[in-house]
Amino acid sequence: MKSTKDIKVPEKVVDQVIGQEEAVRIIRKAAQQRRHVLLIGDPGTGKSMLGIALAELLPKSEVKDILSYPNPNDENNPLIKTVEAGKGRDFAKSQTLDSKQLMKNNNFLLFIVAILTFVAPWWIRYKYESDVMFAAFFLGGMLFLAAFAMMLSMGPKVFKNKLVTPKVIVDNFNFKKAPFYDATGAHAGALLGDVLHDPFQSGGLGTPANQRVVAGMMHKAHLGVLFIDEMATLHPRTQQELLSALQEKKFPITGQSERSAGAMVRTEPVPCDFVLVAAGNLDSMKNLHPALRSRIRGYGYEIYMNETMKDTKANRIKIAHFVAQEVKKEKGKIAHFTIGAINAIIKEAQRRANRKGCLTLHLRSLGGLVRAAGDLAKEEKAEFVEAKHVKAAKLLARPLEQQIADKYIERKKEYEVIVTEGTQVGRVNGLAVIGSGSAHSGILLPIEAEVTPGGKTADIIATGKLGEIAKEAVKNVSAIIMRYFGEDIKETRDIYVQFLQTHEGVEGDSASIAVATAIISALKSIPVKQSVAMTGSLSVRGEVLPIGGVTSKVEAAIDTGIKTIIVPKTNMQDIVIDKERLNLVTIIPVTSINEVLKHALDWKGKKQLKEMIINGQAQKALKKTSKTKKN
Predict the structure, then answer these.
(1) I want to staple 398 with a disulfide (CB 3.0 to 4.6 A). Which of 43, 176, 402, 477 is the partner?
(2) Of residues 48, 438, 510, 537, which has the active-site annotation?
(3) For the packed helices 550-560 and 400-414, what is the interaxial angle rounded to 10 degrees?
């Protein structure tokens, strides 16, 4: 294999799904047995592809066309009829032609009578030689002609009880496989069907109710697949009606607006026996109607999408297949990728996985990088996309979060909010990420602390638009102080922590070690090295716990000019960065707050205090104090 040109792309969509083997296995079962499926996972992991694959795998069935007929007994209750797929148009056309033929026959008869009426006065005059009778018959003929003209213009209204004009509301003409409809973001009318408003509701000028019926996507997906992403964003009432359709496999169409004339119309139940593929993320599950989820779970499957896959030779080949698929989708707009370019994409998949030994499955964003690299090669009129194009595309196709982070660092440096040299008491360079999923970027997060005499505040006061988890992490620091210094400083001191200029807000506990370091520095007046940045969660016992987004955070520290980075030891395996960039910094893995303080603080002139904190003399003193109190 020299390039993606040598890679054969599968024809079936189900064979193009990358890294979701368990999901594909379930989708095959669901297609065979016509089961509903709920897909939960991050955007860009292949949920919509699985929905299309399910429609592709559905056993062949007789797809139907659906027509709406006028009801002679109740015009507001149109009748519904199903016919073989592709026959609906012909059926409606033949019915319309029959109606028009009826009108032609009636018009022809009236025309013959009109001629007779026009000739009759002259025949009467000739027969009876009477001008009075001629005038009477002539005036009568004129009146009849006027009536005839009115009947010609209003014929369809006059004969409306005899005319039967159906409307094709579901047209599966030329469908060779089961229909697939993506109803993501559809409003109630588009999903459930609607009846259009009729401004002419009286005087015989209105449009028949059956002609105003519009089928919803769930009716059009009859015997096919209805895919709805972000399912939980649907209105609860819409979810309830969707549940009814799933249970009954048919659902009447009515006007969705109460102010519309269509609200008075309600058709017979319209067939909608579809397979539902619902998708969403884990956070939105709470907004999903419990009965609807129960229905899916009871008559189908729930799948949690993989976010990463093992970094093996076989899976690297899958990434190469993915690149080939993306090139094919572009239909000649971008060139094929060389082996070097494919390896560069694989390297980026490793980096974005945020886990050592894994490849990301957020393939939509990775596909954006493929297209950007292809565009650059096209601009240069290169025959193939090479590694240099991928490297340049990483800058060109930066996500919005990365661009914001770059501006953030640039402005904070400009106004000297970010300090990367010297030492300061009570000030620490923390690390954080902005964004979520695959679209996130690291930023440097300066944190300052001040400890003042008082003890009037019950809790540590933290400012900087903190979320709930971040606030709780700050509170836990007081336990660390108690553990190391044997005093509840909240009784005698007031503690203030500020996350500098975090207008975007802060959430999570990955700044715990930075907060603890800042408070200890302020409490004991020990300077903090500003060339050091850190990230890590902290337990109440002083253990440093792993955090997420470590690669992005380390990259942000390197870009900012930091020289030393402290990270949890368990996260060392998750750092995927080029060796050239890693050589610019020193990364120190830590397991406890002792190690953090040892490397982050400037201990000049604080030897005794260092011995007490680092070598555990504070804990020994605390235990001794406790024993004395017991005695």
Answers:
(1) 402
(2) 510
(3) 40
